[in-house]
Amino acid sequence: MNEDSTGHGQAVPGGRWYDADAGPLVRPYAMTGGRTKPGPSNVRFDLIALVVVDDQPPGTAEESLLGPEHRSLLTLCRAETQSVAELAADADLPVGVVRVLLGDLLEAGFVKVSRPVPPAQLPHERILREVIDGLRAL
After folding, report:
1. Which of 53, 41, 49, 44 is nearest to 115 (CA)?
2. Are 81 and 96 in contact, with CB atoms under 8 Å apart?
3. Which one of 21, 50, 52, 101 has the fewest CB atoms closer than 10 angstroms to its CB?
4. CA angle, 84 as apex, 118 and 122 as ends, to 5°?
5. CA 8, 11, 14 angle in degrees (round to 5)?
6. Distance (Å, rounded) from C-alpha 90 to C-alpha 67?
7. Residue 22: predicted pLDDT
8. In angstroms, rounded to a whole number, what is the distance separating the alpha carbons of residues 102 and 84?
9. pLDDT value at position 117?
10. What's the DSSP call for residue 8?
11. Tell me, what's the pLDDT at 63?
12. According to DSSP H, which parts of 1-138 are helical?
């Protein structure tokens, strides 16, 4: 094991070093091919959107062409339906990267995404005041 001048960790070409437990360092832009938005359709994945494997996904030949991060997300989705936030945490990837990778999987037909139900709209303040006034009149 090569050590740096302090006697700790692994020397890495280029002057930076990381400890032996850090493992290989892959930059997020390398995982997404430099992209920051999911797919050509610019689908937006909310953190609470649920991701599930499609009922009729492409075959194993197409899956073998996917990168390791794509396959990791598919494995997590096969185990159970998960939100985008859960996938990011379980895959130990930044949420932005997971969104781009999910966009790829969605476009290729591997996964389906169910949008979160929009929150109920609160009643107008005028209506609430009328209800309060009505209750006080009782």
Report:
1. 49
2. no
3. 21
4. 15
5. 140
6. 17
7. 54
8. 9
9. 66
10. -
11. 74
12. 28-31, 60-63, 68-79, 84-91, 95-108, 125-137
Cα separation, 132 vs 43, whole angstroms:
43
Q: What is the pLDDT of residue 36?
A: 61
Q: What is the pLDDT along the chain (138 residues), one digit of tens a residue?
A: 444 444 444 444 554 555 555 555 566 666 766 666 676 666 778 888 889 888 877 777 777 778 888 888 999 988 888 899 999 999 888 888 888 888 888 888 888 888 766 667 667 888 889 999 999 998
17, 32, 62, 73, 138 from 67: Cα distances, Å: 26, 10, 11, 10, 67
Distance CA 125, CA 117 (A): 23
Would you call 79 exposed, middle or buried from its count of C-beta atoms within 10 A (0-12, 13-18, 19+)? exposed
Q: 37-41 long-range contacts, Cβ below 8 Å, gap at least 24?
A: 37/100, 37/103, 38/99, 38/100, 38/101, 38/102, 38/103, 38/104, 38/106, 39/100, 39/103, 39/104, 39/106, 39/107, 40/107, 41/103, 41/107
